[in-house]
């Protein structure tokens, strides 16, 4: 919070018995100031207190916001990569 308004958010849930980070977001003006890292640290602390042994998250590897480096600094490692395919359908 800054001046009474939120500048970042983290949303979590359980996914197949694992703590899961669903959303991490920081307002553009607040990026690079440790907001996302602080939210992740808070989530990790809460997960540990709740007895979880691991935490996971998914991210678009082409994310332009610097999310990959934030997650790496928070101790996350890539354990799986996925590809999504799309095709334009043209009228016959």
Q: Which descriptors would you attach to this protein?
A:
globular, Aminopeptidase, 92 residues, alpha+beta
What does this entry look like structurally?
This protein is an alpha+beta fold and 92 residues long. It has one domain (8-73): 3-Layer(aba) Sandwich (Aminopeptidase). Helices cover 24% and strands 22% of the residues. It has a three-stranded mixed β-sheet with strand order 1-2-3, with helices on one face. α1 links the parallel β2 and β3 (55-57). It is globular and about 55 Å long. The termini are far apart.
Short structural summary:
With 92 residues, the protein is α+β, with helices and mostly antiparallel strands.
The helix/strand order is EEHEH
Query: What's the Cα radius of gyration?
Result: 16 Å
> What name does CATH use for the topology?
Aminopeptidase
Number of helices: 2
Overall geometric form? globular
In the CATH hierarchy, what is the class? Answer: Alpha Beta
* Fraction of helical residues: 10-25%
Q: What are the low-pLDDT stretches, counting only 5+ consecutive residues below 50?
A: none
Terminal CA distance: 54 Å
Count the beta strands: 3
CATH level-two architecture: 3-Layer(aba) Sandwich
Question: How would you characterize the largest beta sheet?
Answer: 3 strands, mixed
Question: Could you give the order of strands across the largest sheet?
Answer: 1-2-3
Q: Average pLDDT, to the nearest integer?
A: 94
Strand content: 15-25%
Number of domains: 1
**What is the CATH superfamily label?**
Gcn5-related N-acetyltransferase (GNAT)
Structural class: alpha+beta
């Amino acid at each position: 919070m800054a001046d009474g308004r939120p500048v970042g958010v983290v949303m979590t849930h359980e996914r197949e018995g694992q703590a899961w980070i669903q959303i991490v977001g920081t307002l553009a003006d607040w990026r690079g100031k440790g907001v996302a890292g602080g939210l992740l640290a808070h989530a990790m602390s809460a997960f540990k207190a709740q007895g979880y042994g691991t935490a996971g998250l998914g991210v678009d590897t082409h994310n332009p916001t610097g999310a990959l480096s934030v997650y790496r600094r928070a101790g996350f490692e890539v354990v799986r990569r996925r590809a999504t395919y799309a095709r334009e359908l043209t009228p016959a």
